[in-house]
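Here comes a specimen:
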Amino acid sequence: MRMPNDFLSFFLSWMSAPRRVGAIAPSGAALADLITREITASSGPILELGPGTGAFTYKLLKRGVRQQDLTLIEYGSDFMKLLQLRFPNARVLWMDAGRLTTERLYDGTPVGAVVSGLPLLNMSTRKVVSIVGGAFSYVRPGGAFYQFTYGMSCPVPRPILDRLGLRATLVDRALLNVPPAAVYKLTRRPQMKLVTGSLAPAPSTRVALEPIHHARDYSAAR
């Protein structure tokens, strides 16, 4: 259940850093329901990026995910103490999600789902690659990355999906959210190899990030 001061906390954070926060209010119940719809207790561990005041986190708990299976990555210092108080058994880390490739959060690839509330449309191509590619370095085969957007299309552009070997599908639109939002599901594309003259899926591999040269900025308001 959202606390009465959540709107004020979000609004003040947005006022101080609008491009980083990306929204003036916490996500509504319709969007929280949608972005967590395919997640169950067996999906854990779960990595949540940009949880803010915890609107999606509360819904994950209602889906049966244990707090112990949650790792919350939050860059906004205004939200850190709030998240630690609300979810004392979760792992709450104050860090930039763009550093997921340099900070080893897990041994191996145990994560079943990533839930992202980050404003990807406000970020450069390089940053989006670091965040999405870094997150997938922890995602087990069959896992997924769930991203919401206020835009009309997937906030991860096709060139980035191609680079990382991912595909995006629209889960649905939360028209009752204010403003209306959409949720996209990112998954790994099947890797094909030649086996006795026919194509067959290759074993899943982890995403390898290479330096980006002359990265183009796809920034836009989310």
In short: The longest strand covers residues 139-149. Residues 192 and 198 are 10 Å apart (CA to CA).
